[in-house]
Amino acid sequence: MQESEETCEVVRSQKGKDKLNVHGYLMVKEKNVGNKYYWCCEFRRSKKCNGCATTLLIKNLHYLQDMSEHKHLPDASRVEVVKAITEIKKRASQSKEKPVQLIQNYMATLSEDVKPFLPSHNALRKTVVRSRKTVQLPQPQHALDFDLPPTLFGPEENSRILPLVYTLMTNKSEESYRRFFNGLITFAQQIGIQLNPKWIITDFERAAINASCCEFPNVVNKGCFFHLCQSGWRKVQKSADQIQDAFDTLM
């Protein structure tokens, strides 16, 4: 066993747990007794490595007391790769950047020595998506979960009223849109209004277009230019991902 007074860097793993960088080896915490910490090699099970280390925690710093040899060589890129993936997940949870843009912006800050050892572009993109799903707020289950304002009848001036109907939908399926239009027609009939629109403006969702044409057979369906631009931009980004994935496969 070796003894030294050097400090060891704490590295946050992809799963949010602390690992210790000891001479290029990543160690996981086994236990602690007071401020004395016992660590074992992260590959103890997969590679049957019995490498271990002991540190003293003093003022939030881990001082290496002793360590044993490992059954494998240290991976110089391993620590930096773990740091990079952890940082990508952190940025994903804190920003609204598109996955492609977020990854490209962060990759520009990395050393060229680390990039070849990172997961594929597609794998990193999936990491961003999964990270954001874990921090999303749970979906409300009841109307009581919302702060609903009192009924609005119109403005205090000009006596002009623009009738609007808002609906909260659990998904964007054609069946859900048809249920919405049916409910709207039924409500209108109850207050003495016969809905017979000449045209309906929607975004470019096939489910919404099909449902509106089914419930209002004579309607002229028009698409929104704003949503057309959004749809085109999503297609460009999707194609960029596919091109990058194909490039990663070839490389």
From TrEMBL:
Residue ranges of domain MULE transposase in the record: 153-230
Domain of life: Eukaryota
Keywords for the protein's UniProt record, in alphabetical order: Metal-binding, Zinc, Zinc-finger
FLYWCH-type domain residues: 11-72
UniProt-listed Pfam families: FLYWCH, MULE
Keyword S-adenosyl-L-methionine: no
GO molecular function, one term: zinc ion binding
InterPro entries per the UniProt record, alphabetical: MULE_transposase_dom (IPR018289), Znf_FLYWCH (IPR007588)
Alphabetical list of Gene3D superfamilies matching this protein: 2.20.25.240
Protein name per Swiss-Prot or TrEMBL: 13866_t:CDS:1
Natural source organism: Dentiscutata erythropus
